[in-house]
Amino acid sequence: MRTAALAGLATAAFPAVQVAPALTVLPGLRRRLLPGLHGLGPPDRVALTFDDGPDSESTPCFLDLLAAHRVTATFFVLGAMLRRRPDLGRRLVDAGHEVAVHGWTHDNLLLRGPAGTVRDLTRAYDLVAEVTGRRPRFLRPPYGVLTGATLLAARRLRLRPVLWSCWGRDWTATATADTVAATVRAGLAGGGTILLHDSSHAAVPGAWRAGLAALPDILAECHRRGWRVGPLGAHRLPAR
């Protein structure tokens, strides 16, 4: 009932309302006008986030490394991936990490339409809540592409959309530990939100290894600058 009602409202929306939010994929625009969506918090800390898992091959490696560094993060999970490995979703929570919604599959929501978007996000939200025992608080759509239907579903589900202020381009065939660390450092500033990937589900196979190898250097850089690293829930984002 909830999904059908939301889908009906979204379908009735004007096409411009559906497409216009996608402009926030431009980092310069959201940094100036929507700092919360850009992931900007207090200047003494940095939020660490991962997309596209949980993945049985790669996510445990990130969990082990983060535990060794005593750092917690936010994992934006795909519902289809979580359904395959719910034990990893529970392990994330048990280790003190935050689990958030990335969608059901890694599809560009501009191509799914309003009804499919609402169904996708609601289904993912419900599974995260069921597996982890906690209601997710944050949403990051695949590719960072927001739509009118995405915002409508997020409002109804009480999810806050958050993108990122810097990334490592760790999904590419040419990514290495050095290139990922350098790319993150180029955009890194106090109060920022880092995007990495704990899975190559939507990337070049095995690309996650470059992000994993770069992570100690990234964490060391944050600590060198005096920034605390943690999940979005502790990032104190500005009001929406």
Give a structural overview:
The protein has 240 residues and is an alpha/beta fold. Helix content is 45%, strand content 12%. It has helices spanning 2-12, 15-19, 27-33, 59-69, 79-84, 86-94, 113-132, 148-157, 177-187, 208-224; strands spanning 45-51, 74-77, 98-101, 138-139, 160-161, 166-167, 193-197, 228-230. The strands form two sheets. Strands 1, 2, 3, 6, 7 and 8 form a six-stranded parallel sheet that branches. The radius of gyration is 17 Å and the shape is globular. It starts with a helix and ends in a 10-residue tail after the last strand.
Relevant terms:
240 residues; 45% helix; 12% strand; alpha/beta; six-stranded parallel sheet; two-stranded parallel sheet; 10 helices
Give the topology.
Layout lengths: L1 H11 L2 H5 L7 H7 L11 E7 L7 H11 L4 E4 L1 H6 L1 H9 L3 E4 L11 H20 L5 E2 L8 H10 L2 E2 L4 E2 L9 H11 L5 E5 L10 H17 L3 E3 L10
Parallel strand pairs: 1-2, 1-7, 1-8, 2-3, 4-5, 6-7
Helix pairs in contact: 1-7, 1-8, 4-10, 7-8, 9-10
Describe the structure concisely.
With 240 residues, the protein is an alpha/beta fold. It has 10 helices and 8 strands. α4 links the parallel β1 and β2.
